[in-house]
# Entry
Amino acid sequence: MKKENKEMSHNLDIASQIKHEAEITRQHARYKIPAKIEIDGKEYDVDNWSISGCAIINLPEEYIHKFTQGKMKFKFDNFETAVDKLKLEFLKNDKFDDHTIMRCRFTELKPDQRAILQHIIDSFLEGSVVTQDDILHVVQHQITYPDKKTKEISHKKAWSILLLIYFVIFILILFLGYVFYNRTFIVKAVVGYVDTNVSMVRSPAPSFIQFLEKIKSGDEINASKPFAVAKMLNGGIRTLRATVNGKVLNVYIHNNEFRNTGEPILSIIPNNAKIYIVAHILSKQAEKLKIGDIATVTLPNGKEFRAKIVNIKYPAPLSSEKSKGVTNTYANSINYVKVILIPIKFKLTPKQLYESVNVKVDTFRQ
# Structure
């Protein structure tokens, strides 16, 4: 009977320190577990707290309806622990005769912060910790021989560790398989971009270029109709025509602007030109590809579409490249293969020309 009364007294003592939430907005019971909170370098006593928030004693009223960070501190027998960087929202300030209580809630509580707070609450409710002079004391349990229940818990713990090991091994196998698959079957372009065949109109001689009518990007242009005249420095005049029918891509000069021989005036996309993808792929990787393979192309905006390989341009022999006097011959000719791809059921526009794209080919699925 005395034992039952003692247990009942202990339960009532714990219950008396728990402050249940009455308002609908509160979701957790609050506890009178001693704690302090540090805000802006100053330390305040906590009247009560829960997983969702706390009540702070004598916090200045200036914090009301504001957001800040705080650190909750808990003192144990031989050490002190804290939950740092708690994001706080101050809701209201209750005034009493000799003190005030600022109500606040925790916002964006992280999993590790929640775990520490919950562990302290659970330990308190189990009787593992008690309240005395604003310090949480950890009850030191005597070492005893494990009973049958303890052995069962240890056995379950061993199985949990074993399952965790199996899980880690399984994840490792998946990772190694993923790496092997990517290295064996996946071919990725080092550089990829949108391109098309473009016709250039250049200055025939040092001259001033005068447009016969205003021309801008996107305008239709006819090869049979002059679009400008070149007033040469020697006094001559030459009419300028496009070499193909198509749309103006870029206008490189202003009206009556001087251009030297060979400098660009207009770039034109022919009417029959197709917009395609150019991918530069390492020579060793390109050996896995063939004409007709399907690639996945990703645009800068994240949109994906499929494209078909229609041409693979292998580099010319090194001796041939050297004879042209090309700089950096080894990098340009030997390391990379140029692969041309045509979109499947997807239309590229002139506005996307020269955009960088990602190109990936899964040779296993071909």
In short: The chain is about 25% helix and 40% strand. The longest strand covers residues 80-95.
